[in-house]
Design a protein that fits this description.
Distance between the termini of chain C: 23 Å
Oligomer: heterotrimer
Order of helices and strands of chain C: HHHHHHHEEHH
Distance between the termini of chain B: 71 Å
Structural class of chain C: mainly alpha
Mean pLDDT of chain C: 89
Strand order of the largest sheet of chain C: 1-2
Order of helices and strands of chain B: HEEEEEH
Largest interface: A-C, 47 and 42 residues
Strand content of chain B: 15-25%
Shape of chain B: extended
Number of domains of chain C: 1
Largest sheet of chain B: 5 strands, antiparallel
Radius of gyration of chain C: 18 Å
Number of strands of chain B: 5
Helix content of chain B: 25-40%
Number of helices of chain C: 9
Mean pLDDT of chain B: 87
Number of domains of chain B: 1
Shape of chain C: globular
Number of helices of chain B: 2
Chains: A mainly alpha (about 200), B alpha+beta (about 190), C mainly alpha (about 200)
Helix content of chain C: 55-70%
Chain lengths: ~200, ~190, ~200
């Protein structure tokens, strides 16, 4: 049961308290770029979550069995980003074969997952051991997964708001990016309320 | 097939060149980085140990093993000696996860495990809130406290929390308490 | 386009942050103080300049199919270089920028310029483009940083500007997450307004 409660703590932490988009500023580009329609937001969120989980796994293994034993930690950035790029390439092929509709709607944003700070960010953050939870392979993967879920939650929320926003009267200078950012700011303010949530 | 092999080789060669350049640079900068870190640690140790009137150069430290941290790396504590080689106290490094980062505090203790001075040396807490733990009015709240006094006011103790940053204050307090407990056990003889 | 034009376009006409809306993650994350904003801007400029030069030099021998991974390796190398140099010579700045130094490798601006410009132009022009875009990025970060640091703590680059009474009780939200989003949103709105007036 201790294990289950640790997972709950991790989930709440990753999704609400340390939300990747609203608290850590990771994954902003797709957050602003793909959040106009609900289904593409959900699709993107799930794709990113999958990549983040897999990336957490692979980068942990690379760090533990390649970088540390051979004392080449300085190659971390190169090794991690190449791993992520290959992973995204692989995911792209899989989606193209199995869900062509999703592939079409995500368009150019799918390969752009490689440059999503959230993916490289979670890979590096998993190694800092600063969330008070056990420091091992399993928890690292879970952290990647739940951080991705947090990203998806926020993306979907934003898409829902922006879909409704289409019918709102806005000053011309606010339309598009400015209002999206201000909404993001309001959401960030709301999520700031989770600060200090502890069990 | 041959085409893909050629692509793979070009990529591999590029990586090899990159690795070579970085390995060379790493050789140059790694000792420098370590030197900066060691100097920082030594300065922090002296700051929490030295009584204002004494010359820092007269102090020496003996490193001893405290515990393994969550990553499996060793954490050390130091016994402080003055110029006559008398034991004058200890130096601890206490680390714990705060609100948004690991908070690392260096603690100077006297022979009777009472806190002489603390210094927060590493943190990335919220600016204007938890980050105030590095401001000059924070550290004195721990002066002359013993193991039993290590409680934040919200938990019934005497240590005043930073306004709006109880978590950071509590983290620092608890990290010191936990490390101190380990130290006292090891030095009980 | 003449070399001067390539250089100056990065500041206003094609400013990566304000006009192209790229590189959002570091823009929002490190602008809580002018010092960090400047540090990040100049580091990114260094990487952008060097990677543009190298990409332009090797554009002839890079096979089309693997150009993205090749660019990534080049960029990642320079990011690791600046990471090492900062850790050795500018330790406090290295600490405060933290995660966002390695994240320079996924800064869309750098990969974007390599793909869109450096791989298609000569070395000198690529240099101008890199410098211009990089300094334009820095310019945008510093503006954002100045506003946020001033409102959020009453200081600019750690120099107290506003009266002590304000410094003791500043509008903290400006240096926190919501402040980043909202400030940038308003800046973009103002820019839209200016663009409209110009028409």
């Amino acid at each position: 049961m201790e294990f289950l409660s640790q997972i709950m703590i991790m989930a709440v932490g990753a999704i609400f308290i340390n939300n990747f988009v609203l608290a850590k500023f990771l994954g902003i580009c797709p957050y602003l770029g793909v959040s106009k329609k609900l289904d593409s937001a959900l699709g993107m969120g799930m794709a990113v979550t999958f990549v983040m989980t897999m990336a957490s796994a692979f980068t942990w293994l690379i760090q533990s069995y390649l970088l540390i034993p051979f004392k080449i930690e300085y190659l971390q950035t190169i090794a991690f980003i190449l791993t992520i790029a290959s992973l995204v390439q692989f995911v792209e092929m899989v989606i193209q074969k199995n869900a062509p509709a999703l592939y079409k709607s995500l368009g150019v944003f799918l390969p752009l997952i490689t440059t999503n700070c959230a993916v490289l960010g979670v890979a590096i953050l998993n190694l800092t051991a600063d969330n008070g939870l056990p420091y091992n392979f399993g928890f690292s993967i879970l952290n990647g997964f739940f951080s991705g879920v947090g990203f998806t939650v926020v993306l979907v929320l934003m898409a829902g708001i922006r879909e409704k926003l289409e019918y709102a009267e806005l000053p011309a200078s606010m339309k598009g990016m400015p209002i999206a950012l201000i909404i993001a700011g309001s959401m960030a303010l709301a999520f700031l309320g989770f600060a200090g949530l502890k069990f | 097939m041959k085409y893909y092999l050629k692509l793979g080789i070009i990529l591999l060669v590029t990586c090899a060149i990159a690795t070579g350049i970085l390995a060379y640079l790493n050789g140059l900068t790694a000792p420098l980085i370590k030197e900066v870190k060691d100097k920082e640690a030594e300065e922090a140790r002296l700051e929490v140990t030295v009584n204002g009137e004494n010359d820092p150069n007269t102090y020496s430290f003996q490193q001893k093993f405290l515990d393994s941290d969550i990553k499996g790396d060793s954490v050390f504590y130091y016994i402080a000696f003055n110029q006559d080689n008398d034991k004058v106290g200890y130096v601890l490094t206490a680390t714990k996860t705060g609100y948004s980062s690991n908070v690392k505090t260096v603690v100077g203790l006297d022979k009777n495990f009472k806190i002489k001075k603390i210094k927060v040396i590493d943190q990335a807490e919220t600016p204007g809130l938890g980050a105030k733990c590095v401001s000059p009015d924070f550290a004195p709240r721990f002066d002359n406290l013993g193991y039993e006094d290590l409680k934040v006011d919200k938990d019934g103790g005497s240590i005043e929390s930073i306004t709006g940053a109880t978590i950071t204050t509590r983290t620092i307090t608890n990290s010191i308490k936990e490390s101190l407990e380990k130290l006292m056990k090891l030095e009980a003889n | 386009m003449s070399a001067m034009k390539e250089f100056t376009k990065g500041f206003i006409k094609e400013n990566p942050v304000f006009i192209l809306v790229l590189g959002m993650c570091p823009t929002l994350a490190v602008t809580s103080s002018v010092k960090n904003a400047l540090g990040m801007g100049l580091s990114a400029t260094f990487v952008l300049l060097c990677s543009n030069i190298i990409v332009s030099l090797i554009k002839g021998i890079v096979p089309e199919k693997i150009r993205i991974p090749m660019f990534i390796v080049v960029i990642a190398t320079f990011v690791t270089i600046i990471d090492m140099v900062m850790a050795a010579y500018m330790a406090p700045l290295h600490k405060s920028l933290g995660l966002f130094i390695p994240l320079i490798v996924v800064n869309c601006i750098i990969l974007g310029r390599a793909e869109a410009f450096a791989s298609k132009n000569n070395v000198f022009m690529s240099m101008m483009d890199g410098l211009g875009m990089g300094l334009g990025f820095t310019f945008a970060l510093v503006i954002l940083g100045t506003i946020r640091e001033l409102i959020g703590s009453g200081k600019i680059y750690d120099f107290p500007i506003l009266p002590q009474a304000y410094q003791d009780n500043p509008m903290l939200v400006a240096v926190l997450a919501p402040g980043a989003f909202i400030t940038l949103g308003f800046i973009l709105a103002i820019i839209n307004l200016i663009k409209k007036e110009g028409k």
